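Researcher: Sequence recovery benchmark, item below. Answer with residues only.
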């Protein structure tokens, strides 16, 4: 009886392992899905026209053809994949116009990242054009390290790196060239 068991035991063990492997379903893809979380917007809007007010007066008007809201993620943000067209109003009603091909607004930091043919125009004749520009909403301050072209009634300058207040009263630029009239 011992000889019989020794002869067939390895074959029996191999057969049991072979059939158990064949009968198990492969759930590797299911296991992979456990570690992947879906990154979808919690809200989506088409053709938006939002008016922001401050103490009863309109402070800004935001127009966009598409808005994606990611407020349910750890670092919430709002994305405008088709760009924005914003009109900012100062306390005296003067307008500043901001356009870009893409924008993303980070809720925790209050920083807005404008990208793609960014253009800012004021009623006083100031025009700034660049490929990327950040706006700090809390301090009402624009800045970039990218190449820019700035046109004002005093002339035109080009450079790399600029920061300025939203009303263009304070401007700091780096690596500039161009013809600008200065006051003595």
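Model:
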């Amino acid at each position: 009886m011992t000889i019989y068991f020794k002869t067939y035991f390895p074959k029996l063990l191999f057969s049991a392992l072979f059939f158990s492997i064949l009968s198990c379903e492969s759930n590797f893809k299911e296991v992979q899905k456990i570690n992947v979380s879906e990154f979808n917007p919690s809200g989506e809007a088409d053709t938006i026209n939002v008016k922001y007010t401050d103490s009863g007066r309109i402070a800004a008007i935001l127009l966009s053809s598409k808005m994606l809201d990611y407020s349910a993620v750890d670092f919430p943000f709002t994305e405008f994949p088709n760009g924005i067209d914003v009109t900012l109003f100062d306390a005296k009603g003067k307008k500043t116009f901001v356009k870009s091909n893409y924008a993303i607004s980070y809720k925790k930091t209050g920083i807005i990242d404008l990208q793609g043919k960014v253009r800012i125009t004021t009623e006083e004749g100031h025009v700034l054009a660049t490929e990327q520009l950040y706006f700090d909403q809390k301090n009402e301050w624009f800045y970039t390290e990218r190449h820019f072209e700035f046109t004002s009634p005093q002339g035109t300058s080009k450079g790399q790196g600029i920061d300025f207040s939203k009303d263009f009263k304070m401007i700091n630029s780096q690596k500039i060239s161009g013809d600008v009239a200065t006051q003595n």
